[in-house]
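Final report, section 2: Outcomes. Of the targets proposed, CPBP family intramembrane metalloprotease is the one most frequently requested by collaborating groups, and we therefore present its record in full.
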Amino acid sequence: MTEDVIERDYPFYRGDPVTLTGMQWLVVMVGIGLAVWVLLGHFAIFSQGYMGYGTSVLMTVLPLLGLILVAPRHWTALFRKIGWKDIGWMFAFAALNAVIAIPLGFLLVSLVEAQVNPGVDGLTTATNFDRTLFFLASLPQLMGEELVSILPFLAILYFLTQKLGFSRTAAVITAWIVTAVWFAAIHLPTYNYNIIQCLIAIGGARLVLTLAYMKTKNLWVSFGAHVINDWMTFGLAVLASVFGSSA
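The predicted structure is given below as tokens.
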């Protein structure tokens, strides 16, 4: 039977392709912790000028390195081959994210004064070269954001099912919500520690992006949806600045 007929389970928590132990998951979490530490600007060499783009690369390298250390022959289980159906799911979940963002945006502005992502402001005044570099550097950055979300999702799934005896469904739902809150938390410095904005806007977007992985068990799909969403957001900001300045 083909892979499309037999639905694939999540990797690493229950023998597909291997089960990572608690200590192995700890190694992965160390890689994730280092990636977030770098993201928050605590690695001085990547805090100035164009060297800042090194942060984007480390966001991907450090979590993957942790996984490769404990699953050297199986780390690629996070990724599956991409077909036309997968590309369709990327756009479908990106569209779902955009649709959900509208009511969440109305809810947000009714509760707090929203903070603007500084990346948006920077793009409106940047040169075309810097804009191009920004979009290219966002690729490893967004892959890193997927890794620091999906790997904890799988770690929680392992801990709840294998150690605490949760049912698979209860563990999946719990991991889905917890990692959305975690993703919102690491964005707090970006949005001036606006907790409500991060929980509603960033956490809400993360729920949809993780849902893309839950549907396909393919990190490429959630990554693709993430790229489409962010490039659309930043691209619209650039277009608005270009046409606004020429008006």
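Residues 1-5, 43-47 have pLDDT under 50 and may be disordered.
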